Amino acid sequence: MANIIKQGFQEKLIELGVEELLTTKSISIYAMKCRKYGQVLSSIREVGLIEAPVVAPLKKGKGYLLLDGHLRIMALKELGVERVSCLISTDDETYTYNKYINRLSAIQEHRMIMKAIQSGVSEEKLARALNLDISTIRNKKCLLEGICPEAIELLKDKSVPEPVFRVLKKMKAPRQINAAMLMNDQNKFTSSYAKALLDATPANQLVNKGRPKKETPAILARQARLEEESLALSREIGSLKEQYGTAMIDMTSMQAYLKSLLGNETVAKYLRELHGPVHDKFKEIAELDFFRLKNMA
């Protein structure tokens, strides 16, 4: 019999008091001065709350745990809003809402802006809603002009800085695709890396050739060797990424099992009293923060 997929959220929203939501993380007072908070505040003030905060009912006692939407709740409090419609999660995990997993890419942001403009929202209103200068909105609107569809598809969900797209526009379509593949393979999306790829691009693959480069046989041979080494390195990195992904899934599953094991007081007591070192090691693994370790690496 096929496994039944568990629904992640209840179908209906619930209206809750802003003050009665229990936060899962502390937000510094300095967060209210950051650009992101300013955008959230301006957006809610201009067009209202778009994305409902996510909550989960407490397993013991009454109340709701705020899983996602801490900045939105802070903004609502500042604006004097007392009640908010929330999405109810059937689980109290916070992995789904982790900023390293769920973030808006430059291309997704461009598409969001284009969709809003096509729906009749003016550039001025968008600028106010996102707390951005109107010139920034126009730059984001023109972000993909001159980028081929294949390169866009390769980079659509990647965290690519806007200057990288300006560099890609100087290349012809086949080279854009090749550059996007190299950036993907090496998971490197910096403007300096894009410029390095541009410098290594033959003149006949540039949109504006400009002053012809001196391409002696030695230079051409070196470029060919670098391309070959880069492709070999990309294949090796791809293999390592695949192994890393599998290992992370195994570790996450193992950690969840150990948490449930140590959550059973009878088992935990048995391990503490008769197998102390094993209990300590299990506890250490159960408390590991894989995302923090990844950032430190």
UniProtKB/TrEMBL annotation:
Domain ParB-like N-terminal spans what residues?
A: 14-107
Sections of the chain in a coiled coil: none
Gene Ontology biological-process entries: chromosome segregation
Q: Which InterPro entries match?
A: Chromosome_partition/occlusion, ParB/Sulfiredoxin_sf, ParB_N, Plasmid_RepB
Q: Name one Pfam family in it.
A: RepB
Listed under GO cellular component are: chromosome
Q: Report the PANTHER family cross-referenced here.
A: CHROMOSOME-PARTITIONING PROTEIN PARB-RELATED (PTHR33375:SF1)
Please give the name of this protein: ParB-like chromosome segregation protein Spo0J
Species per Swiss-Prot/TrEMBL record? Geobacter argillaceus
